[in-house]
Design a protein that fits this description.
Number of strands: 12
Distance between the termini: 36 Å
Order of helices and strands: HEEHHEHEEEEEEHEEHE
Number of helices: 6
CATH superfamily of the largest domain: Pseudouridine synthase
Helix content: 10-25%
Largest sheet: 10 strands, mixed
């Protein structure tokens, strides 16, 4: 899906063209469901906004959205930095995000997330053979002292975190190294939750340089994709949105064979 009316500085425009563009899955007057590509930051850091958005900074999903939906610029808890953004995905994660187009719907969607009434399903490629094949990881997540890195071993600002998972397939590469293709359903919404929880049980997500192997990355992206979202709208209708794994995700899987 090609964006219209870009007014970015040329260096930022080139950076966005080099990756897959976001795609609008669904839109109505209240909200948008967008499929974000891996490698695109959702919103700028607050310090960048305070410095008047230096043209040397990388483009964000917010930049792209404001070009198409200028009405979101006044929506949200912090519209200067995160207009319309109800939740977020890590830069390296692809998949579905909901964007509110009005303050009323922002508050509604925010309340659903807070009450864990939005069902989220992710697809992840994890290292090793995840056993048992299905289960629940129930470990509070805190912040490691002196960093922004999260850990199940830190009590600093620790919050409840619950992740349900099911290994769909076991795969291997040409050297015999084993991987698990996992469907993940987070029941809470902590920063880096899926990445931290899978790493905590010895099965870090492939391509995760922060919580996984410190060796040179074997793939060009974090193998985590937000595949679906399901919730009840304000009009009491059930809504479900899905996004197929993108080409770069499928390309990695195509190099593996099922066990």
């Amino acid at each position: 899906m090609r964006a219209k009316g870009f007014s970015f500085h040329i260096s930022r425009l080139v950076a966005l063209i080099q990756m897959s563009e976001p795609e609008i899955i669904y839109e109505n007057p209240d909200f948008i469901a967008v499929d974000k590509p891996a490698g695109l930051q959702v919103h700028p850091a607050k310090v960048r906004v305070q410095r008047l958005k230096s043209f040397s900074a990388d483009p964000t999903l917010v930049d792209w959205l404001l070009e198409r939906y200028p009405e979101i610029k006044s929506v949200g808890d912090d519209p200067e930095t995160r207009p319309g953004i109800v939740h977020r995905l890590d830069k390296g994660t692809s998949g579905i995000l909901l964007i509110a187009r009005s303050q009323k719907y922002f508050e509604y969607l925010k309340s659903l997330f807070q009450k864990h009434e939005i069902q989220k399903t992710y697809l992840a490629l994890a290292s090793g053979k995840l056993m048992p094949q299905s289960g629940i990881i129930d470990k509070p997540i805190g912040i490691k002292n002196g960093t922004l890195k999260r850990s199940v071993h830190s009590e600093k600002m620790a919050k409840e975190a619950v992740t349900e998972y099911q290994a769909k397939k076991y795969l291997s590469d040409s050297s015999g190294k084993v991987f698990s293709l996992v469907e993940v359903m987070p029941k809470t919404g902590r920063t880096h939750q899926i990445r931290v929880h899978l790493a905590s049980v010895g099965h870090a997500i492939v391509g995760d340089a922060l919580y996984g192997s410190k060796k040179k990355k074997e793939v060009v992206r974090l193998m985590l994709h937000a595949a679906s979202l399901e919730f009840t709208t304000m009009e009491r209708k059930r809504a479900r949105f899905e996004a197929e794994p993108p080409e770069d995700f499928e390309r990695v899987l195509s190099q593996l064979q099922e066990e």
